[in-house]
Amino acid sequence: MRNLFNFIIRNSHWLLAALLVAFSFYLVFTHNSYQRSVYLSSANNISGWFFSVSKDIGSFFHLKKNNQLLLEKTAELEKEILALKDRIDLLTVSDSLEMNAFVKDSASLPQFDFIPAEVVNLSFAGANNFITLNKGAKHGIKPDMGVISTQGVVGVVSNVSRNLSVVIPVINPKFRLSARLKNSENYGSVSWDGTNIGEVQLGELPKHEAFHQGDTVLTSFSRIFPRNLIIGFVSSEGHSRDDNFNTFNIRLSTNFYTLQDVLVINDTYHEEQKILEETLQR
Amino acid sequence: MKLNYIYEIVLFVLLVLLQTLLLNRISLFGVATPVLYVYFLLKLPVGRTPYSVILIAFLMGLIIDIFLNTPGMNAAAITIVAAFRKNIIGLFFEEEGHDEYIPGMNMDAGPFVRFTIFMVVLHITLLFFIESFTLFNLKNTLLRIVTSSVVTIPLILALDSLMFKRKAGEQ
pLDDT tens digits, chain A, 282 residues: what are they? Predict the structure, then answer.
């Protein structure tokens, strides 16, 4: 018995290590971008504060204020463009004399609103890439909102705390987005194979979809992004997992290395659409 | 003795900040990322009890995980390395009884270089394989392990040599 105790005492550090490692693996495997706690992410107050400070120092060299002004201007214009596009669609489709009853009230809110935000931290080392933004629940940001830059699609908000939010970017293996080539109505799915930060894969395209270098890739139907936002440009033919579909490599239009300012998309119809679509699933 | 602890705390904080604010934003050629914080385990006295080494390593890994949004990954890797630290020290450093001996380029360059290479390769291998649970791509993982080790090891050796130089100047 004493020998047993001695053995346990002598080797108890292995036990401690095993427990801690088991706990770590528990965290690894229960780690889910939608359920995970805010406290264990870079959106918590302490790490967020550190990132904000380090970002502030960096921002000095990037003319922070000018950027901010430009970004707000962009958000405003972007909103206006979408509102105008809606009007144009309505007016060109219908003869205004006959269809007057169906023309939308011009005072109605545009569907998409844009919240400008700044990147305070980003990680590209390895598979679990993420971006932390300096806007949170306080500024109206909610999980599942789309994030774009002036160059193109960036990612989707996954975690939100009071002042900060974490974004899963296109270059994360968990990210999926429906997309299409500009001159075609067939859509495929954008994902990232984890090899190159500047390149994603557009898969599940019909076989007859021909490869053209430089084709523009746009967002398709999605609950998160408006239609026809630029994702990137076709750069080369990729490896397809099976013979029924084509896969193309896409050069991203967003440069993640220099990403500083982004716009978070607030889709005012999001809740409504979600509830409506869920009634079908019951 | 007290000075030792202050030095360790400062090193701990510096390495965590360096790793999270700077090094993890580096991705040389899209594959190589320096993983420097294992340096902390190299610079603890060889006689430090496994208990405290394991606990402090786990804490360090967890803090880095929180900063990097990778719950558990860094913590698991560094805790395993910490658990085997005593055994690994036995492989490279012979004499017993020098519990306060801190390995370094200034003490015994040969064993320290071998010790560093072993610890870094072990840590990076564990870390990247744990990471690849979410994205399995063997060729890419191996490439990242090799390139990251090649970047990290000289960085640690250079850092250690520099710190040693400054100390010699003060004396």
Answer: 777 777 777 778 888 888 888 888 888 777 654 345 555 555 566 666 777 777 766 666 666 666 777 887 788 788 888 888 887 777 666 555 544 444 455 555 667 888 889 888 887 776 678 888 988 888 889 888 899 888 888 999 988 888 889 898 988 888 888 888 888 878 888 888 877 888 888 888 887 777 888 888 888 877 788 888 888 898 888 777 666 778 888 898 888 888 888 889 888 888 888 888 888 876
Give me the CATH code for the B2-170 domain, please: 1.10.1760
Alpha helices in chain B (DSSP H): 2-17, 39-42, 50-68, 73-92, 109-131, 138-170
Kindly state whether residues A194 and A165 are assigned to the same domain.
no
Report residue A195 as tokens. 């090899």
- Chain A residues with CB under 8 Å of B51 CB are 12-13, 16
Mind giving me the DSSP string for A205-229?
A: EETT----TT-EEEE-S-SSS-TT-
Residue type, B30: G
A190, A250 Cβ separation under 8 angstroms: yes
Structure tokens at A9: 């005492």
Residues A125 and A201 in one domain: no
For residues A86 and A104, the answer to whether their CB atoms sit within 8 Å is yes
Q: How many separate domains does chain A show? A: 2
Q: Do B45 and A20 meet the contact criterion of CB atoms below 8 Å apart?
A: no
CATH code (residue A78): 2.40.10.340
Return the DSSP state at A109. Answer: P
**Taking an 8 Å Cβ-Cβ cutoff, which residues of chain B contact chain A?**
17, 20-21, 23-27, 30, 33, 49-51, 54-55, 58, 61-62, 65-73, 75-76, 79-80, 82-83, 128, 130-135, 137, 140, 144
A126 and A193 assigned to the same domain: no
Domain containing A85 equals 45-169
Look up the ipTM and state it.
Answer: 0.81
